[in-house]
Amino acid sequence: MGHVEDVMTIVKEMTLIELRDLNNAIEEEFGVTAAAPVAAVAAAPVDGGGGDAADEDNLTVTLANFGEKKIDVIKAVRSVTDLGLKEAKEFVESAPGVVKDGLNKEEANSIKEQLEAAGASVEVK
Q1: 58: burial class by Cβ within 10 Å (0-12, 13-18, 19+)?
Q2: pTM of the model
């Protein structure tokens, strides 16, 4: 299980663009769909949170799904990340996925509010 822990440490430190590239590489290498690797990557930081008071400064915002207003959600993702239009569109379409992590409660709630106002379903843990 040591290899799994090593990989998870690396994945937790990756940017959204790096995670997207990893997702694409996994798809090509193993012939799997985008849904499986993205869901697995997104679950790691969220599940590792523990949920106690000490983690209020290490929150993760996850886009669960984009709802019925995909374009509005893409715009909202772009406003809270440094993703370009193409990358934001790919990220939104491959939901679920981690939008940002390592946030304090105020930052996480602000991002959640922006994404929900655009029509997305969002989780903060």
Answers
A1: middle
A2: 0.55
